[in-house]
């Protein structure tokens, strides 16, 4: 079964908050998140599941992306994704129900950047891979295709189809 996986870093957050976990998005982050959502919708991407870190800035990123894309999907919030390293984040994706065909994951760096790099099987467009390799800034979105069960997703098993940085 062909699946689609979107790996995204949260949008630009305020530098301060009551705690790091509770930092909200900056105004630029809300605008950039909506721009990323509009781009995803323009690419014909409509997820049937979203796995989002429970941190405030990632929740607000999801809200901005969903608004910009016109999606009404409620995300699955995961507190473990907040502090997850790449392997733990991959483990969380592996737990996604196999009925899900199109998944969006929104988390934090460096985890999302490393996850996107390790998933890439190297068979996609070299220019797209090169643009992703340079940086994975806030509102960065990597879109992968993957054939197989989520439980079998591993390093070098997904094809990088697109890379975009949402900017308003």
Automatic annotation (TrEMBL):
It comes from Nocardioides hankookensis. SUPFAM superfamilies: Phosphoglycerate mutase-like. This is SixA phosphatase family protein. InterPro entries: His_Pase_superF_clade-1, His_PPase_superfam. It holds the Pfam family His_Phos_1.
């Amino acid at each position: 079964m062909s699946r689609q996986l979107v790996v995204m870093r949260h949008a630009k957050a305020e530098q301060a908050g009551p705690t790091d976990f509770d930092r909200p998005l900056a105004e630029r982050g809300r605008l950039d998140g909506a721009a990323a959502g509009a781009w995803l919708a323009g690419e014909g991407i409509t997820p049937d599941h979203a796995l989002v870190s429970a941190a405030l800035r990632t929740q607000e990123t999801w809200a901005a992306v969903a608004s910009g894309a016109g999606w009404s999907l409620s995300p699955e919030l995961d507190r473990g994704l907040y502090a997850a390293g790449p392997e733990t984040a991959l483990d969380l994706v592996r737990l996604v129900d196999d009925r899900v065909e199109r998944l969006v994951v929104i988390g934090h760096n460096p985890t999302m950047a490393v996850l996107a790099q390790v998933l890439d099987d190297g068979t996609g467009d070299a220019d797209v891979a090169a643009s992703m390799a340079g940086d994975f800034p806030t509102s960065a979105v990597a879109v992968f295709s993957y054939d197989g069960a989520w439980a079998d997703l591993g390093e070098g098993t997904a094809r990088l189809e697109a890379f975009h940085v949402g900017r308003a």
